[in-house]
Amino acid sequence: MAVFASECAKSEKSNMNALQHHLQSALESFLNYMLIERNFSANTRESYNNDLERYLLFMQHRSRSLEVITSHHIEEFMGELYSIGLEASSIARNISAIRSFHKFLVLERVLGSNPAENIHQPKKAQYLPSVLTVDETMRLLAAPQAQNPAGKYDLRDKAMLELLYATGVRVSELINIRQQNLYLDAGFVRIFGKGSKERLVPVGSSAIAWVKRYQTELRLSMVQLNSDDYLFLNARGIKLSRMGLFTLVQKYAGMAGIEKNISPHTFRHTFATHLLEGGADLRAVQEMLGHRSIVTTQIYTHIDRSFIKEVHKTFHPRG
């Protein structure tokens, strides 16, 4: 009897390993398809990989191969995501990834139909992103120079924050800027955005001056054999990471006495809002931000209107 139980356990383990290999192989094929055929960015590919790994692990633990997954099983997985407190926007992204994955499997004739095709997309919550006032922005930009004694990498951090505010670029776009992408004498930086879409973004004189100082006074001493041409380097001489940038922004926000919950992306929101409050054309801001649709840019007009409403409330006799 003990021998029979042992053989059953071995068989079950073997089946589980085979299922795991089956699911992982399908995922790798899909990710390669996204990268080569669809020309998706590395960040999008990584996001899809994280979402789908969690999804396939859920199915694996319930011994479900791709061929037996139904819409009911996917809805069950969605319920798990709701139960752990994932936001509607994150769940919507998960559904999009799952739908694309199963659509690929149909194209490859692994599946006969897409079980995720009619899965309900949760409505994304409408929100206004956190934005810094002009005074808060100036305090934050001054923070790297406020340390006493001065930190070793203050000049890099100052140049980095100035460039973030001057251009409104995404976090991934900033850390991937190479020196060859800088046209500082002409007042521009070349940015490669989502889907490798290229755009030229103007840079103001303050950011230009600080970036040039960083390049000549600090970056040369930070360079290592594996530094490549990336503009912003960390202590090991390699490209600064997203988490490294996030940590620095949090540090300087604390030094500047800013109590709002901010991140590097706050600079992007602040950049757009300050331009629109100053009278900039919406289409021009769309171009600088690299938004595919002007609808995405229009969220900043809501922020602008809330600012105008607050001014009216404060200063109008009948406010």
Structure explained in plain terms:
The protein is mostly helical. It folds into two domains: 106 residues, DNA polymerase, domain 1, CATH 1.10.150.130; 182 residues, hpI Integrase, Chain A (Orthogonal Bundle). 60% of the residues lie in helices and 4% in strands. It has 13 helices and three strands. It has a three-stranded antiparallel sheet. Helix 2 crosses helix 4. The chain is globular, with a radius of gyration of 25 Å. The chain starts with a helix and ends with a helix. 29% of the residues are buried.
Keywords, please?
319 residues, mainly alpha, DNA polymerase, domain 1, hpI Integrase, Chain A, three-stranded antiparallel beta sheet, globular, disordered N terminus
Q: Would you identify the regions where 5 or more consecutive residues have pLDDT less than 50?
A: 1-12
Secondary-structure element order, as H and E?
HHHHHHHEEEHHHHHH
Report Rg: 25 Å
Report on the biggest sheet.
3 strands, antiparallel
Integer tally of domains: 2
Strand order of the largest sheet: 1-2-3
Summarize the structure.
The chain has two domains: 2-107, DNA polymerase, domain 1 (Orthogonal Bundle); 134-315, Intergrase catalytic core (hpI Integrase, Chain A, Orthogonal Bundle). 60% of the residues lie in helices and 4% in strands.
